[in-house]
Amino acid sequence: MAKLIVDGKEIEARDGRTLLPVLRGIGVRIPTLCFHEAVSPYGACRLCLVEVTAGKRTLLAASCMYPVAEGLVVKTASERVIRARRMVAELLLARCPGVPRVREIAGELGVQASRFPQRDERCVLCGLCVRGCAEIAGVHAIDFASRGVYMDLAPPFHRASETCVGCTTCVTLCPTGCLDPLDFRMPPSRHRFSETRPAAGCTLCASESFRSDHGH
């Protein structure tokens, strides 16, 4: 076990765990879009930023990725943290102004509008669908495509995936409702089932142990 200071209070946590579940476990509210307990952390959305002091070094870090260690001093609501989260919220609000979950998180952080040029996207590039497809379904039917401002999510070659098993794990994990389980005939930059065969169903989800472990 490691001892650390969180917002002025000493706590103990298992060494090697990441900060986010530890902080939530003691009742600290941390906003996230890209985190889900069922898949590995990714640190994409940056909403879970906290201020961490380790030795003489102080930095902003994504709490979903930063490991617990002896002697850490963590601030979850400092002025620096709140300012950084609000900036992230503004950027997300500029990208996805019509997404309810984005607007909800922005509102909780006191951000009602964005100063940046607005786009009309629904996907926040959190990568939950990618990790769910790879780690839970095990089929890698969707991934990131292109780079920079052109990055999106797509099956290989932007064609309907032949490896997709129709388990809808990607839909279940998506925090913005970007993927619609009733309509998989989406534009090429969106995940969709094969146009030549019906959804086969996920053999992994059919197992009794997987259903019990994941609440199915």
Residue ranges: pLDDT <50 for 5 or more in a row? 182-201, 206-216
Q: Which geometry do the CA atoms define?
A: globular
Number of domains: 2
H/E topology pattern: EEHEEEHHHEEHH
Termini separation:
33 Å
Q: Which CATH architecture of the largest domain is right?
A: Roll
Structural class: alpha+beta
Approximately how much beta-strand content do the residues carry? 5-15%
So what's the CATH class of the largest domain? Alpha Beta
- Total beta strands: 7
Might you state the CATH topology name of the largest domain?
Ubiquitin-like (UB roll)
Q: What's the rounded overall pLDDT mean?
A: 84
What would your notes on this structure say?
By secondary structure, the protein is α+β, with helices and mostly antiparallel strands. It folds into two domains: 1-126, Ubiquitin-like (UB roll) (Roll); 128-214, Alpha-Beta Plaits (2-Layer Sandwich). Helices cover 25% and strands 14% of the residues. The chain contains six helices and seven strands. Strand 6 and strand 7 (152-154) form a beta hairpin. 33% of the residues are buried. Mean pLDDT is 84; it is low at 182-201 and 206-216.
